[in-house]
Structures are given as C-alpha cells and as structure tokens.
Design goal:
Blueprint (H helix, E strand, L loop, with lengths): L2 H8 L2 H8 L27 H12 L2 E2 H10 L21 H4 L1 H15 L8 E6 L5 H12 L7 E6 L3 H11 L2 E4 L8 E4 L5 E5 L10 E6 L8 E6 L2 E9 L5 E5 L5 H6 L11 E4 L1 H17 L1 E10 L8 E4 L2 E3 L9 E3 L2 E2 H8 L9 E8 H7 L2 H11 L3 H15 L1 H5 L2 E8 L3 H6 L10
Parallel strand pairs: 2-3, 2-7, 3-6, 7-12, 12-16
Antiparallel strand pairs: 1-9, 4-5, 5-6, 8-9, 8-11, 9-10, 12-18, 13-14, 13-15, 17-18
Helix pairs in contact: 6-7, 10-11, 13-14
Amino acid sequence: MNTGFLFRTCTAPTILTKFFRRSKGYKIIKRPDPSTLKMPTPGSAPSLMEIIKEKLRLNGPLTVAEYMHIISTNPTEGYYMKKDVIGEVGDFITSPEISQLFGEILAIWFYAETQKMGPGKPLQLVELGPGNGTLMVDFLRVLNRFGYKSDDVSLHLVEISDTMQSLQARRLCITHRATDIELPYYYEGETVSGIKVYWYNDLKKVPNNFSWFVAHEFFDVLPVHKFEKTEDGWRELLIDMDENGKLYYRISGKETQSAKVLIRPPLDAGDRTELEVSARSLGIARQLAHRVDEYGGLALIADYGHEGEKGDTFRAFHKHKVVHPLENPGECDLTADVDFSQLRIAASKTPGEGNYAVVAGPVQQKDFLERLQAKARLQILMDNAKTEEEKEKLKCAYDMLVDPKKMGERFKFLAFYPSSMGPILEKFPPLGFVSEK
C-alpha cells in the first residue's frame, strides 16, 4: 500500500472538513449575576429534620460532627442563621452580656501583654464568632482610653450568620453596607469614631498583619467526633433514625476514617473509654498559632472546658436548660466542652512545622480575672453606681463570673504568644496565668 498517498489523502482539507465538522456549535450560556442570587427564605426551604432524614437515606448514619455542622450552619434553617440566640430571651447568655467588666479586663490584658513586644500599632482586632458584638464594644472603649485612634486600629469579625452579622453591625457601626462579591470580606462598616469594621466567613480571609485574636465561646460550638473504646478498639458514635422517625445513637461496627485519622497518641493513652475530638478546632488552633508567630500578635481563647479528663460532654441548651441533643434539631444550641489539652498540642511546636506558639494556660476564669484586678474594677463601677439596686446588680454579675459553682471554674483561658516571646515571658510571665509572688 502506498502509505504516503494515503496520508496525503487523509490530510486534505476536504477530508478534514468532512470528518471534523460540527453539526451543532456550543452556545454561550448567560449566567446569572451572583450579586442578585438570594437564598430561600426561612420556612420555604426543607426543614432540618427533612435534610437529616434524606442524608441518612442516601449515606447512612451521620457522625456527631456532621450532625452539629448541619444544625449550626444550614443557610436558612441553621440554629445561628435565623434568630438572635444570646441573652435572657435566647437559649444561653455569655460573660460580656453579664458585665462590661469582663470585656474591659480582656482588653487590658491584650494591651498590657502587647507592651512586652512593642507599640502594637497599627492593630487588627479580630474576633471569631462575635455574638451580639458586645465584647467588641467594651474592647473599643478601652482602646479609646489607651489612645488608639481610627488610623491605629481596624476591626475584623469572622461570622457566618447573616442574622448575627446584622446584629453586630447595628451594635458597632454608624454606617454599614454589603460589599462586592470579589472582595475577601462580605460586609463592611464604620464606627462612630471612624474605625473600619470588616466581616469575613473564614479566618483565612483576614489579612496577615499584627493582630489580637479573640475567641470567646467559639470553640465549644465547633463540630466534634465522639468515640467510645470497645473490645475491638475505638469506635465512633453515630446518629441514625429508627422506624418511627426518631433519631438515636449507635456505635459504628468498624473503625471509621475519623477514628483512624483523629485518635493518635497521647489522646488514646491511659484508661479513657470516651473521647471527643474536634478536627475543626485543631485546625483553627494551628492557624492562630501560625499567624501569631509569623505576623505578630496575641490570641486569647476563653471557653468552658477541661484539660483532657472528660470524655462525654456533648449536650444541647434550650431556654437556658439542658435538653437532649437529638430532639428538635435546629431549635437548641449544640455544644461540647473544649478540650484545652488538645488545643495546646495543636498550637505547640511539632516536627516539620515552621511556626508555632508559646502557649500559656489554661487557667480558670476566676483566677484570670482576679489576677488582673477585676475586684478593683468592680469597686470603681460600684462607686459610680447611682442606686443601691445598680450596685447589687454589679455584685451579682461579678459573682456569676467568678463563683466556682457558676462560671468561675468551668470557664478557662488559654493564650498564644509568638515563639520569639519565650525568653521574655520567662522574665515577665504572662499576666493572668501565674500567681503573683
């Protein structure tokens, strides 16, 4: 066969046109403008129970972490997405809502510890899960007293709930607006004193600059995986639905992928039979340690938790009372005590990591506040009170914060410093974390 002739014939323009001509061309699709898209209104979307039921049908039992994620962050029906849940009319109350003293003491701690590093200006004040914005109101008041001007500080809030973001904007800003979808922050505003305020849906989007990071009652709502130790090793606690449509717990028959990845020494040491691990919490702790060490600043975590001695703390709150976590999904606050020992491990130096933090704590809230002269601040507030009723309220609020039977022992503080601060902290120990000699 004359292969040369065949090749020339097949590559002739007429043959190519015949073989490769498209009978129909691709049409350009007109896509919608992302800025005009809106989520379904609450009530028009499937209920959380319907969503959970469908996920169980398609994928089988859910992990507790998956369940918590659905309940907390569903765009329309999620617990934090559709209503204000903090305060007397909500399901729980936080320390900043109890007394202005709490936020003031935290701001003073940041300012005092920053003086060990330098002037600390310009400053990014970053809060993870800002609640109603009350804590930042107290912070900004203290910064104003310390001489911070609008050019010295900017406020960066990590918040995924449009409902909570709206509350924060009304509390903090004199003007506020949505931003272009191309920007890393989805909302912006300005305080009455001219301080710029920005909202993000992810910590990774906050600019890498010298920052104070505050995480108050943030880690306790992050999803946790629950494990139990059986004769066959660690097995994960899963959530399933019975024939009557009621959710219940069951143990995985085999070792799940979560158990393989998350249960590592020293977590599985000793005689522990129950364990809770939040992969999301460990990742954020590493982020904070990295950012503090590489770009400068401080991180302070305040939450209720333990140091590794507890194993089963997953629960729900409704109207300030403890209820079953699997009942009425979306109507209750799901939470688990923070394991501060795990956060310490995540933030401290590990092989192969270039940035890590010097970790101080955890210490009990009672000790932290009292070591920072909270009683002296209480006395000043009482001296300025106009009535005996106001004085009594101040005393009751302070008692709520420091009484060991209330918040005093259950809530703890953990701090991250840049690794370069090690020698300085040996000479000038972290305020609030060590007893005065």
